[in-house]
Every structure is written in C-alpha cells, then in structure tokens.
Amino acid sequence: MVEENANKVPGVRVGIDLRGKVALVTGSSSGLGMEIAKYLAKAGATVAIHYHSEKQQADQVAANIVGNGGKAVVFGGDVSNKSEVESIFNSIDEELGSIDILVNNAGIDGKRELCGDDNTEDWEKVIAINLMGPYYCAREAVKRMKKSGHGVIINITSVHEYLPWSGYTAYCSAKAGLSMFTKTLAQEVSDFGIRVVAVAPGAIKTPINKAVWGNPDTYKDLLEKIAMPRMGEPIDIAEAVTFLASDMASYITGTTLVVDGGMLLYPAFKHGG
Ligand code: NAD
Predict the structure, then answer these.
(1) Any catalytic annotation for residue 171?
(2) 105 CA distance to ligand 1 middle (Å)
(3) Sheet holding 101-104, edge to edge
(4) What is the pTM of this model?
(5) Active-site choice (171, 219, 251, 266)
(6) How would residue 273 be classed by pLDDT, with cut points 50, 70 and 90?
(7) What is the span of the domain harbouring residue 121?
(8) What is the pLDDT of residue 9?
(9) Would you say residue 153 lies in a domain?
(10) Cys bridge to 23: 28, 45, 185, 225, which one at CB 3.0-4.6 A?
C-alpha cells in the first residue's frame, strides 16, 4: 500500500501504513466488509474477519488475504447479541492481543414495510443489528482502546442517515441513530486518543441491493438518483475507510464522510428545473 500510494513528487513520500495494527471488520464475509478487510490488510493491518452465518465465505476472505501476504483470523457471532459480541472480543484478545481499529459494518436493510402495516419484530431486528450491534461492539472496543490510549472506530451508516426512504423507517432510524452515536461517542472518548467517525455509502454494488442493480428497470431508476454516472463499487468505500483508519486522518473525529457519487446533491436538479 505504501508503495502503491507513494506520491510521485520527487522527495515526497505519502502513504497509508497500518502495519502493527489489529482491525476488526464486522460482517466481512461479503460486500463492503469483505473489501474493507482486504484493503486494510493491504495497508498492513492484521484483520479480524467476522461473519454471522457465512463461515465458508469468511474463510475464503481470510485465505485471500493470507495468500497476498497479509494476516487475517476468522471470528463468528451475531452482533445483535451482547454476549456473542463479548466472546468475539475475548477471542480477539486471546488470538491477536489487541484491537486498534473497529469497523462496524454488519447491517441489513430489512423488509420494505409501511409503518402501521409492518411487523414490529422486523423493525426490532433492523434496530438490533444496525444500532445495538455497533453499540455492543463499540463498548467492547472502547474498554480496550482506553487502556492502550489509542484507537479508531468507524461506523458504516448510509446516505439514509440523511435521506428518508419510504418503507424503511427502521433502517433510516438506525442509521441516523448510528450517526448521532458516532458524534456523541467521539466527544466522550476524545481525551483517550480514540477517534470515532462514520462513513455513509450511497448506492454501492453488493449483495444487499442485488435485486435493484440486477434488474435493468430498477437499475436505470437508481442511476437517476446519483449525480455521477455510475453506482459505487465496494473499493470506493474501502479506500475511504482505510484513509479514516490511518494517521492521515488523525484530526478527524465525530463526523460522517459521505461516499455517494453525489446522491445527496438532489440529482433531479442537475438539468435545472
Ligand atoms: P452485505 O449484505 O453484503 O453485508 C452485510 C453483512 O452484515 C454480511 O456479511 C452479513 O453476514 C452481516 N450481518 C447481517 N446480520 C448480522 C448479524 N446479526 N450479526 C453479524 N453480522 C451480520 O451488504 P453490504 O452492502 O456489504 O452492507 C454492509 C453495510 O453497508 C451495512 O451496514 C449496510 O447498511 C451499509 N450500506 C450499504 C450500502 C450499499 O449500497 N451496499 C449503502 C449504504 C450503507
């Protein structure tokens, strides 16, 4: 990573170096988490790959990292279950000795249901995974980072921390809540050398939204919602996360970096109106 990112200006060398750091990426058996894990490993971090139910996929991600000269260990558990989260962190303590970077990535968007016609269990599940999960993981990370005197927590929110999305009240509420959790926690831990930031992806091509990009009609409709003429790729998010995890972002805390190709720019106004 240092070599690849090396600035071409003679005498100047700029790069991201996460060697010696241990990073946990929740939900890294697929989609954004997988790409983030691979990218952090490329930058030199030892990565704790985490899965919920896709162990085989998680093992493949770890094998890919190890095959490329990196370090990765696989851990399983449900982020919405407090004791399972505690076990994950205890296992990381035993196997990797520390945690320097936590990426709260695991999440679901849930079923499309209108409030009043919805099932409260579905609502609770989205809140449990997308908001309680990052909280359970952050509290375990903070306990350890306070002792070591440093750390970075990166919460993957969404453009829906800002944008309402009919039929997804739980998802939008969880992501907006995670945004305020980011800011408040950043304030709480700033004296301990710990930074807390959020990354808000727009529409990125992963399994979570395959039903949309896999259908030509819904794909066309989606592209009209983005100012730039393309959907995002997982690497767009992985690069932003890796930057925020690094010392290049050492004065950034309590804020959200939006990575959305301009989805929040009211693209319908692009041609006037
Ligand atoms: P994905 O479905 O590929 O990944 C979601 C991951 O979360 C999976 O690895 C899954 O196993 C894990 N997970 C689900 N429930 C879990 C649980 N109870 N415990 C532990 N892990 C669990 O989708 P993705 O697009 O990679 O999503 C990753 C994150 O990015 C999510 O938080 C999502 O809300 C957010 N996001 C994605 C997009 C997008 O366009 N892809 C946009 C905005 C935000």
Answers:
(1) yes
(2) 6
(3) 71-76, 46-51, 22-25, 101-104, 151-156, 194-201, 256-259
(4) 0.96
(5) 171
(6) confident
(7) 14-260
(8) 63
(9) yes
(10) 45
